[in-house]
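Contributing new records

If you add data, match the layout below exactly. Sequence lines come first and carry their own label; structure lines follow with theirs. Keep one chain per record. Anything else will be rejected by the validation script.
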Amino acid sequence: MWHSSFFSISFCFLFFLLPHENNSSSVNAVSVDLVNTTCKQCASKSAIFNYDFCVTSLQAVSISHVTNLQGLAIIAMELALGNATSTISTIEKMMTSGTFDPFAMDCLRDCVDLYADAASMLVSSIAAFLQEYFDAANVLMSAVMEATSTCEDGFTEKEGEVTPLTTENYNLSELSGISLCIINLVVSSELSSMSS
């Protein structure tokens, strides 16, 4: 697939962000605490941020237990990318199922385009973050969140239309929000270290 090589590249970079310590149990304790602390910080900044979703998503990736804040940002963006590409497949299956009326089919076509754009923006966001172009990564992640809203809103234009992608839109929006928050925490952390 088009993004598979990028997964390898970004995880290669992720290796250099890992703390190099001999005591694996202390690394795990620190990293689990990092996930919890990071998710709490993000939840305190937004009333719509889902702390439980954040913790569950990040802790499900084993490498998150041995990483730092920069690595956590990449993990969150990688999760969002995986979600977006998976949703493209889901939408394509829906479109060939023959169970949707012409209006819903138009909405699904719009959504598959939006998700394809979102996947591309996520790849660009990871690349921008790795090159420390944090403003660009921030803008791209915000655009991904907007794509999920646009997909969801398309179905509501027809009264009584059931949105079949609510869960997918919510998940990508949350993962993008987690990524966006961690990017901003990385920026704050770097600014603090420069001023001290």
